[in-house]
Amino acid sequence: MKITTKAQQQAVLKRLDKFSRFTDSSIGIPFTKFQIGAEAVIGLVPVVGDMAGLLLSGYVLVEAQRAGASKDVKLLMLRNMGIDFVGGLLPVVGDAFDAIYKANTRNTRLLRNYLEKQLAVEPPPPPFPWKTLIGLSVLLAVITAGLILLL
């Protein structure tokens, strides 16, 4: 399924915005402006939490595939997922990295930019109707010649 309408684009992005907010910034840290998400909390469980976070991040990639995102966009998403996963594996520092990097938000932004560019591209103008122009010119010449012969 390739996204072809603004309504389809908005539906996909609305789902991904909710998902990204849940996984990356749904929990406010008291007395700060900083927010973490469910993925950072899950990532506190060594290795298994990071694997679960990687699986969760796969949802954005699946939506990008369904939306018809380009190979380049999907590769950038995979890169973000890999950075988030490897960064999260680091002892102690990895948990903070998970909370800060926010791969799902980055990937949602990548897809949003891609979709907006795709829908903003105007279709090429139709080719000039040369055959019609020539046909009408010949018809007009025949009618004119016929009128001149009748007069």
UniProtKB/TrEMBL annotation:
Tell whether Transmembrane helix is among the UniProt keywords: yes
Q: Where are the transmembrane segments?
A: 40-62, 83-101, 132-150
- What keywords appear on the UniProt entry? Membrane, Transmembrane, Transmembrane helix
One family from Pfam that matches here is DUF4112
Query: Among its keywords, does the record have Transmembrane helix?
Result: yes
What's the name of the protein? DUF4112 domain-containing protein
| Species per Swiss-Prot/TrEMBL record | marine sediment metagenome
